[in-house]
Structure formats: C-alpha cells, structure tokens
Design goal:
Chain lengths: 455, 75, 205
C-alpha cells in the first residue's frame, strides 16, 4: 500500500467527492451512510467509540500527530468537555487540505465532530474557519444548516470566523479565540490540564482528524489499520506544491515514500530537496526521498509529518533563498509574546538573508548555530522550534550551497521568484537594517488549484 | 522529589533578577531573557529559587515540585 | 505634647517623608529601566525600593498623626482620607490627603500583591507615580519652611533627582526592547477583530 491511489477504499476521505462531485448531505449519506451517533448519555456506545479510536491508532492530522484516543481519554477523565473545537484554520500557507475538506466533504468532518461531542457530553461544537477563507466558511456553514435541528446534529454547531495568521491555528490560540479571548498561544506548563473554552474543558481537533474519526466509527479500527503501516495506519491528505506539474491535495496511504509521491506529481526539473511538514518542518534531501511518509521514518531524517505538506525544490531554485524567505515569514508571524521568538527569529532570518545574498561571513554561520540552540524550546508554543528546525535542516541539506554563498559566490538562482507562493512575499519583518536592500520576488504565485486524487 | 524551575516565557519581561540570584542555574541570552536548561534545583539552592520566584516582577519565574507550585500568579 | 513640639515633628517628618518618597520614586524608575550590573544587583535594588517605601510610610504616618494631634490649627481626623475636609489651608492639606490616599492604595495592594491579578496590581502601582508630584506640591503649598534656603534646596534636589531618573529611563534599551515586543504583539492583535459567527450565506451575526 505505497501508492497514490484513486479508488474509494484507498482514498476514503475524499471518496464521496470523487464519486459524485457533490458535497451536500444527501450525496454524503448515499455514499457513506449515516454516522453511528449514540443517544446522548449512552455510555456503552460512547465507550465503544473510544475503544475503536484507541485500537485504530489514529494520530492527529493537524501537525502534532498526537494520538487522538489519548486526547479523548484525557477529556473523559476530567468528566467530558463543554466544547468541541474544530480546527479548520489551515494556518500553514503551503497547505490546502483543510479547505478542500470543508468545501468537498464537510459532512464527514461534521460527523466526526458530532461523534466526539456526544462521546464527551459537549454542549456545542465550534467550527473555526480563517477569516479570509470566505468560500470555505460559506460551504461549511451551508453544510451545518443542512443538518441543523435534525438527528445528525444532536450537538449544535457554530461556524466561527477567526482572524488568521500562522499561530492562530495553534491549539491554545484557537481555544482562546473560540472563547472570545485574543487568539494567541498561552503558556501550558502542564499538558495534562485540558484547554478550556469559557469555563469548561474543551477538545481541539484538526478537521482532517475528525474526518478519519467519522470513518473509523463507521467501518471500525481494523478497516482503518488495513491501509498504511503498523506504526502509522490509515490515509492522510498531503498538499504537494513547488516545482511539480501536478500541484494539489492528494490522499495517500501512510507509508507511501516521498519519491513515489513526488514522481507521481511530475517534477519540472531535477529535485534537489523537499520541504516536508510545512514552514515549520524540515528540508529532506533528494538522496532521502525513499523515506516513507510516517512520523517515525521522517523523524529519522529530521523531518515531521506536520499537516501533510510537501514542497518540491528543483535545481532551478535556490534552497538558501527559499529558506530565508520562509524564516522571514515566520519571524513576522510571531505572536509577539516571548522574547526569544520575537528577537531570535528576525535575527536568524536576517543572517539567512545575508547568507542568501552572498554577504555573509564566517561569523554569520556561527551566529546562526548559536541562535538555533538558544531559541529552541524557549517560547510558549512550538513556533520558534519549527522555524529553527527548518533553518537548521537547510544549512545541513544545502551545505554545499551554503558554503558557496558564504564564500561570496551565491548561486545564479537566488534572485528567482519563490516557489512557495504568495505568503512569503512579505516585506521585511525584522528589525534594524535589512541586509542587501529589499528583495521582493516578482510574481504572485498561487500554490495551485486544489484537486483530489491524481491529475 | 524533584524541584525544578521553569520560566513562563509570555510573562517574562527580561528583568534578570533570577539570573542574579541563581547564576548557577540561570543564564541570560543576548536579549536578556533567561535560559534555564533542565531547571533541576540542587537542595542548597531551593530557598534562593523560591526567593527568585517571589521577587520576579512579572511572576514569570516558577518553582515546581512534585506536589505544589510556588510563585506564578493566581488566576 | 506641646503644640510647638508637635508642629516641629510634623514639619520634620514631612520633609523626611518627602526625601524618602523621592528616593523610592527614583529607585522605582531605576528598577523599571533595568539599571544595574555586577556591583549593583537589580534584585537588591528592587528590595531597597520596597524597604525605603516602607520607611517612608512610617514617617508619613508620623507626619499625618502629629499634624492632626496638633490642636493649634484644626485639621481633623476626616482630613486623613477625605480631601478638602480641613479648614486650615484647605487646598494644600487636600493635596496631602490625596497623596496619602494614593500611597495607601499602593501600599495595601503591594502587601497583597501575590494574591491579586498581576495586571491590576501594575495599573494601581502607577498611581505611585502620581503621588510624588502631589506630595511635592503639598510641600511647596504648605510653605511653612520654604523660606529656609536649605529646605528649598532640598525640594529642588528632589525634583532634579526624579527628572534625571526619568530622562535616564527614556534612554535605556528596555524601551527599545519593549517597543519591539509591543509592535510584534500589535501585529498579531491587529488581527484580533472580534470573532464572527456565520450563518448560511456568510452573513455575520
């Protein structure tokens, strides 16, 4: 099971859309049947649901890959939750999958949310969509209206438009926003204390995770485990972009190799590296493309699954420059709460720009290494950690390139437009002098029309 | 029982009292913010650690033991 | 106690309280501007600030009590906390009352600091900044010893001390650092428009 597949059983999440190209309730029910919603207070069936989730081995698809059953168990141990928060924010610019879900299969996501809400005795579901994703918000609001008041919506759903931004999709930030407070991450020294919305505990799940939950509840944990690999079962939605012809969202079995995925998307040139896991992920060199797409295997090459993001870099693009652009973007997306992040990330981005432009010295490299050590783990959230992971992986994967740049011989490509999309075309977000003057890429590049399946 | 120090990075405003009181455990980065590493406190420094927690102007310096938390702000 | 002894006590404790309050203010400004180094530890400076403020309160208590107990002029117990309740030099005593009220608020909240909301405490502590010019005006306005050169000199020295400290603070890195942090936070919170609830068709509720 290591191929990009197209039929229903192997791409179950997007299957109803592929079959009928309809996202409405009747099409959803015709394809999947009704979700097995227990009556509120039915402990036996709720327990069965929790056991199924446990047995399935599902991990969160929002980026942290936390076991979903463990999250549920934590909340059941404190007596349930008041709110189920659905993370449909898609704060990673290189990701499209959550928007695809909300537009093409919203009912699957809502099924998962309702199942979780009933199992936890929650009184409401809050579906969070980024404020600038108006089409998706409309689509999911329509889906909610289709179910409202009926047997498929025992727990009322509120669709809520939350101001966007990279850290706005972070769990604690989203819980804060859902509770009417500023959407910035909070300090959580003890992760065994659940998040709260209002005064009651809350569970936050990524939209895709809930889609998988909805399928596991119907078809059982053994079915879920029949795809993928033992330590990473099931399928996963991946957004592929960058130097490939067929950019888009694909549903792959976990364990598919990066090479398989990248080759199927037809790279436009020789692949030098792949950014895996998003802007806070890591670069994986072309020599490691046989790595299977699982948390453990990716960890061995220093990367993460993240929210299923793969950006392909070919030999026509400068990896150092793209890294500097991402670092600049991430620096500008800091919530501005923690010193090491607010000061550290722009300093790192500035040094990377200096490196990209060929104006760096030996001390720039040393400064970068020092700051990597100092910034990691010292923010309230994992934002600076991701930035450092991405930047450090670049210096290792593009080592030869970095050495040439540092010696004053930048490659020919460093002035080329970015393949990363409009998000990184931001003005300089650092503080102090911008080394080498402002460099703005010329094109506004869209990440690509989204599509499901291959082609 | 492990006693550990921990800094709340959101509350911290780089006053630096903790680094003055506990130079063995806390150093300051180039921007004045505390670096605590694993934060394990040897027995002879526990009282100083508690003082640092009381003195921190932003209540950002936390001393945690197995059963209770000293310092920090009450919500 | 004879009236004249009380009167001297009032004036003496008042001047000492003013000097101590000025010292407290300068130390408070220095604390906020992160002065300090190897030979002037910041935690000790903050401790000094607290202790000097406590001594100042003691002298202030003495000043207030002797002024009320002195029956030569009638000030009355109400004037302790109610401004304009004194018939003697109404306005200037009122300033003293206001200063005392402010300092009492600061003192009480500081004693209860660890039991109250941190942001509220900081907001109230800013009242301390207000109490100093109030105390200073009270000193000038009451005027009893202002004809003495050394007393005027003392008052001017107090003014210079606080003004210098304030200017010193304005030049410190701490402002630049806080400005960077504040700008970054503003950028995020600028996105903090209220969360909108959506119905079908996208109409905001």
């Amino acid at each position: 099971m290591t191929t990009v597949t197209t039929d229903d059983d192997h791409a179950p999440v997007l299957s109803s859309w592929r079959t009928s190209h309809r996202a409405d309730l009747s099409a959803h029910l015709a394809h999947h049947g009704a979700p097995p919603l227990p009556a509120p207070g039915d402990r036996v069936r709720s327990d069965r649901f929790a056991h199924a989730l446990e047995a399935s081995g599902l991990t969160g698809r929002g980026g942290a890959a936390f076991p979903s059953a463990a999250k549920l168990r934590l909340l059941r141990s404190v007596g349930g939750a008041g709110t189920v928060v659905v993370n449909g924010m898609e704060s990673e610019p290189a990701s499209l999958k959550d928007r695809v879900l909300l537009t093409c299969v919203p009912h699957l996501v809502l099924d998962g949310a309702e199942l979780t809400a009933v199992a936890l005795g929650a009184s409401r579901v809050v579906m969070c969509v980024a404020a600038d994703h108006t089409d998706e918000a409309r689509a999911v609001a329509h889906a909610v209206a289709e179910r409202a008041g009926g047997p498929l919506a025992p727990v009322p759903v509120d669709v809520v438009s939350v101001p966007g931004g990279y850290v706005a999709g972070e769990e604690s930030a989203l819980a804060a926003a859902a509770g009417g407070r500023p959407g910035v991450p909070s300090f959580r020294p003890d992760k065994t204390v659940p998040l709260s919305v209002g005064r009651r505990p809350a569970i936050v799940h990524n939209a895709e995770t809930l889609a998988h939950v909805a399928l596991i509840a119907r078809r059982g944990p053994d079915w879920f485990r029949s795809t993928g690999v033992p330590d990473a079962p099931g399928t996963c939605l991946v957004t592929v972009s960058g130097g490939v012809e067929h950019r888009g969202v694909y549903e792959i079995a976990m364990g598919t190799t990066l090479r398989h995925l990248v080759d199927d998307c037809r790279p436009t040139g020789a692949v030098t590296a792949v950014l895996v896991g998003g802007f806070g992920g890591a670069w994986v060199p072309a020599t490691s493309l046989d790595t299977p797409f699982t948390p453990r295997a990716l960890l061995e090459v220093g990367a993460i699954v993240g929210p299923g993001i793969v950006v392909v870099l070919t030999d026509e693009t400068c990896g150092i420059t793209e890294t500097a652009r991402i670092a600049n973007y991430l620096a500008g997306e800091s919530a501005g709460q923690c010193g090491p992040c607010v000061f550290g990330l722009p300093a790192i981005a500035a040094d990377l720009w200096r490196l990209a432009g060929g104006g760096a010295g030996a001390d720039t490299r040393a400064a970068l290494e020092r700051r990597f050590q100092v910034v990691v783990g010292r923010g309230a959230c994992r934002h600076p950690d991701g930035a450092v992971r991405m930047a450090a992986s670049a210096l290792s994967v593009f080592a030869a390139d970095a050495a040439a740049h540092a010696a004053g011989r930048p490659c020919a490509h460093w002035r080329r437009p970015s393949v990363l999309g409009p998000a990184v075309q931001q003005p300089w977000a650092g503080h102090g002098d911008f080394p080498g003057g402002r460099h703005r890429p010329h094109e506004q590049e869209v990440i690509g029309r989204w599509t499901s399946g291959s082609g | 029982m492990d006693i550990r120090i921990r800094v709340n990075p959101i509350a911290c405003d780089a006053y630096g009292y903790c680094a003055e009181l506990l130079p063995e455990l806390v150093t300051l980065d180039e921007w004045g913010y505390p670096v605590t590493n694993d934060g394990l406190v040897p027995a002879h420094l526990v009282e100083l650690a508690r003082q640092a927690a009381r003195d921190c102007p932003r209540r950002a310096f936390l001393v945690k033991s197995a059963e209770r938390t000293a310092g920090g702000s009450r919500r | 106690m004879s009236s004249s002894a009380l009167w001297y006590a009032t004036r003496a404790t008042g001047l000492v309280a003013l000097v101590l309050l000025t010292t407290t203010t300068v130390l408070g400004i220095a604390t906020a501007s992160r002065t300090g180094g190897r030979w002037w530890p910041r935690f000790a400076q903050q401790d000094l600030h607290r202790r000097v403020s406590m001594i100042a309160m003691v002298f202030l208590a003495g000043h207030v009590l002797t002024s009320i107990l002195d029956t030569y002029v009638h000030i009355g117990w109400a004037a302790l906390v109610v401004p304009f309740a004194s018939s003697y030099k109404r306005t200037w005593v009122a300033l003293g009352t206001i200063g005392l009220d402010l300092l009492l608020a600061v003192a009480v909240t500081s004693l209860l600091r660890h039991r109250m909301n941190a942001r509220l405490w900081r907001a109230l502590h800013w009242l301390a900044y207000l109490s100093w010019p109030v105390a200073l005006s009270h000193t000038f306005g009451m005027g009893t010893d202002m004809r003495l050169q050394w007393v005027t000199g003392l008052a001017i020295a107090c003014i210079l001390a606080v003004v210098t400290a304030a200017i010193w603070r304005a030049g410190r890195t701490v402002l630049r650092r806080r400005r960077v942090l504040a700008l970054a936070a503003v950028r995020t919170r600028a996105r903090g428009v209220p969360v909108k609830h959506l119905e079908v068709g996208g109409a905001a509720r």
